[in-house]
Amino acid sequence: MNQVPVRIPAPTRDRGPRGRFAPSPTGRLHFGSLVAALGSWLSARSRGGHWIVRMEDVDTTRVVAGAARDILETLAAFGMESDEPVVLQSERSAIYAQALQRLRECNLAYPCHCSRADLAPFGGIHPPDCVVSAAADGRVPAWRLRVGSSVVAFEDRVCGTQIQDLARSVGDFVLRRADGCYSYQLAVVVDDAEQGITEVVRGADLLDSTPRQIHLQRALGLPTPAYLHLPLVLEPSGRKLSKHDRARPVDAADPLPALRAALAFLGQAASPHSMVGEFLHDAAARFDPARIPRDRNTHVALRKD
Ligand code: GLU
User: Fold this and answer.
1) What is the rounded average pLDDT for all residues in the chain?
2) Is 22 near ligand 1, meaning CB less than 6 Å away?
3) CA proximity to 268, closest of 38, 78, 53
4) Rounded to whole angstroms, how far apart are CA atoms 40 and 242?
5) From residue 284, how far is each of 119, 265, 287 by CA, in Å?
6) What is the fold of 18-92+185-291?
7) Residue ranges of the domains in the chain?
């Protein structure tokens, strides 16, 4: 594969891991996102590392007013605060544009007018060539990344070896939508690299996105962080809890019960402390990733109100 030279500068960092929690501000923090926040916090802190919060509001159409502030206040009540100023993806379009430009220069990105409906006969997977030709009416195209014949393998610290044939599983994927929004895949790769993230700890719903992100890192000449995907918190019906479904938010006024439940969900030893700071300090000291349950999607859920 062609490789775009790295031009995104990685600032000098302290030694030690750098983890992050990257919520999308589409609603209030629920138990599932608390598990992701706590898992990433414990993993970084247990080895004396940094933990950063990034607001993933790149898809402005999904943003709920006030949600970003609410999430940060809730995290603070749960004893977890970003070590660095919180970065907003909505303010970083120029950086994503540079990355897309580099991919275009290397002929790794191409414009595309295929709609979802056009791709439906292909199972939604974009083949190497567009199924519709460029629109004559000058409509703005989406931009896609060529995946070629890449098969991406990586080792997840909980889920083990993962292998994905990109062309068969996802096809050429979107970097920028026709409405001008940069895609989550592009934004997350650029931001993780630019923020010097060395480990990504997040929910297993993103396990399938990771090969795309690794492919993009390679195309942009960026380092690949370590990955750890946490089991998902499901509703009794088996669905993933989701902020925009109004899953019951965690109670910032009484953080310990949810913290205890989140720690138990992660398979970790209970912390005896009843002050949030001490609770977290103790949990970090005893954090053992080998205790995180490996089975995806089989965990019980909290009920909605
Ligand atoms: N913004 C994503 C979410 O809220 C998480 C992305 C990530 O951790 O890479 O589900």
Assistant:
1) 90
2) yes
3) 38
4) 18
5) 46, 15, 5
6) Rossmann fold (3.40.50)
7) 18-92+185-291, 103-176
Q: What is the pLDDT of residues 52-86, one digit of tens each?
A: 999 999 999 999 999 999 999 999 999 999 999 99
| For ligand 1, mutation pick of 18, 21, 192, 206 (most atoms within 8 Å of CB) | 206
| Beta strands per DSSP E along the chain | 18-21, 50-55, 87-88, 109-112, 142-145, 151-156, 160-165, 173-176, 199-203, 226-230
Same fold for the pair 18-92+185-291 and 103-176: no
pTM of the model: 0.91
Q: Which CATH architecture has domain 103-176?
A: Alpha-Beta Complex (3.90)
The mean per-residue pLDDT over the stretch 130-142 comes to 82
Mean pLDDT of 156-160: 95
Whether ligand 1 lies within 6 angstroms of the CB of 45 is answered as no
* Nearest CA residue ID for atom 7, ligand 1: 22
The answer to whether the CB of 225 is under 6 A from ligand 1 is: no
Residue 162 tokens read as 């993962």
By CB atoms closer than 10 A (0-12, 13-18, 19+), residue 153 is: exposed
Tokens representing 189 are: 């790769």
